[in-house]
Amino acid sequence: MRYYLLAAAISAVVSFALSLLAWRLGTKYRLAPKIRERDVHTNPTPRLGGVAMFAGIVIALLSAWLIFPLISGVDYFRLVFAEPGHILAILGAALIIVVIGVIDDLFDLDWMTKLAGQIIAAGLLAWQGVQLVSLPIGGITIGSSYMSLILTVFAVVLVMNAVNFIDGLDGLVAGVTIIANGVFFIYSFILSSSSGSEFEYFNLAALITAVLIGACVGFLPLNWHPARLFMGDAGALLTGLLMATSAVSVTGAINPGATDKSTLLPVFIPILLPLAILIVPLLDFSLAVLRRVSAGKSPFSADRKHLHHRLLDMGHSHFHAVLIFYGWTAVVSVGCLLFFFLPPHLVVVFLVAGLVVCAALTLAPLSRRKRVEIAVQNAPRESIANVGVDRYDPLDQAGRRASSAPKPSREEERQTVTALRSATGPAPSLPESGARSEPSPRSEPGSRPESVSRPAESVSRPESASRPESASRTESERHA
């Protein structure tokens, strides 16, 4: 275990040092691309983090190959590097992906060129033997080498794009990768340790997972919100490539026929766990493809309707949206792994409880915003005419006109609510039915509208939608 930790530490240190260098160079030479309409950030930010991650991974793998035997006196990773073609194919595929990603980050390649590069990289892996050989579903063996190659290329390209699709918030991909691969490392380590041989502890999947975790740990400090550096397509595609490679190397190496019925469930873990740790990226990818194809667009065309965009639009802050993604990933992946250690009924209880909590946290801003809307709708109109509450009242015609404008920030909401209170006294109580009632001159104290979460910050606000100088500006002044 300590040599896995050493490999991860080397990857983390190199990745952090080079990420810091990439940030400084990118800032000095203005290598940050222009902000696109779908971007969440508002300041141009360099996207060279993927290069630093790649360097950390390469140096960690070469250290395990060439330096670790000199340190320990025993080549523990000799089974991993017994077929150097596999390692060279992984490094070659990673290099192709990083080059394609960097060019895309700087010059914005078309989707067909990027897809061609992904297929070439995945094909290199499969051609050198890193491919699916069997599936742990009733002892199914893939029929031919051509079918094995096609399935491997499809799986690798799918995972790369799925991970790339969720790369829209600071720290999202790096954090999800750390959580998911941490679970997958534990699984692969347990699976290899069951062989009884000391050298079987050291396998390709566990080593790739360890160095990938290290690279993300080293990169995350500069990518945490507000990010100073992005991993870009180079980093997101590289992360997806290595996650797919580790999953393929484990899944394809298992012999389903050698497992008895008493351990039937663990046999399916190689299929279930990769899906579990990729549940969020795969869900976002599937929804995006269906959405774009149904609209008559290319499945790789860009839009602003990914899951992280929707969380921001619901009212989550950037930080809360990222934590929600972490929560969904942790619950599903850890729950899947727990089948190794706990009775199935306890695991089901854990999964159900975890998913209910995640769903409640995900939907919480909707209830808070609805309470604010109802409170505003029931406030006396003659007393709040100059407060500017139209944006909080979607039932009002002015509110419908304002809904097309950028949503107010939390500070704007607080200013509006403060002005509303100064004009009407305490906020009105919420009706039990939730229906709109007639204005009345008196109102009872109710819930605090300030509790509403920050709405979407994903689009740059025009000057007309910036923070008002005072909360008591008239409608004509606000829209002038």
UniProtKB/TrEMBL annotation:
Glycoprotein as UniProt keyword: no
Keywords assigned by UniProt, alphabetized: Cell membrane, Membrane, Transferase, Transmembrane, Transmembrane helix
Transmembrane regions listed in the UniProt entry: 6-27, 48-67, 87-107, 119-140, 146-165, 172-190, 202-222, 234-255, 267-290, 319-341, 347-366
Keyword check for Plastid: no
InterPro entries referenced in this protein's UniProt entry, alphabetically: Glycosyl_transferase_4, PNAcMuramoyl-5peptid_Trfase_CS
Ranges where the record places region Disordered: 397-480
Basic and acidic residues compositional bias, start-end: 464-480
UniProt protein name: MraY family glycosyltransferase
Organism: Frondihabitans peucedani
